[in-house]
Amino acid sequence: MPYSTIADLLNRVSEATLVQLTDTANTGAVDAALAQSAIADADALIDGVIAPVYQVPLAAVPRVITDHSAAIAIYKLHLFRSVDPGVWKDAYRNAMDFLHAVAERRAALEGNTVEPPPSANLENTLSYTSEPRNFSRTKLKEW
Q1: Is residue 32 part of a domain?
Q2: Would the pLDDT of 89 be above 90?
């Protein structure tokens, strides 16, 4: 389940703006596939940042994640169309700052439990063996 929807994007920008950002075929309508692709990219970014702390995808999606997912998707759509993102660049930075705070455990996501870091499994140890050295100081002393 995506963290945000096209309706969430439309709550943040006008339909005309979303049409300008997504309508590559000049149909005059929002390209839902392109918008959903931007949302999927934003969600993957969010999952990638918070995965060390939370089980992803999140079971309970807090409103702050929905907002950040929509902001990141809109920012990515601006970049896709090579349009100056303006205030969306700041929204993207704010979202990334928040996500990094979550990853560093300085912020928490309501409705989700922090996953403990994986413990060291001593049963799966790795050992190395090698042949004796061919060249050493004593063997090369008279060289």
Answers
A1: yes
A2: yes
Tokens of 30: 């929002």
Please give the tally of structural domains in the chain: 1
Domain residues for the domain of 46 are: 6-103
Examine residue 115 and state whether it is found in any structural domain, yes or no. no
In the predicted structure, residue 127 carries a pLDDT above the cut 80: no
37 in any annotated domain: yes
- Under 8 Å between Cβ of 55 and 82: no
> Three-state SS for 102?
helix
Range with the poorest average pLDDT among 12-21, 51-60, 128-137: 128-137
Domain presence at residue 133: no
List the one residue out of 30, 31, 109, 104 whose CA is nearest residue 69: 109
Residues 19/23/27/28 CA torsion (nearest 10 deg): 10
What's the pTM? 0.78
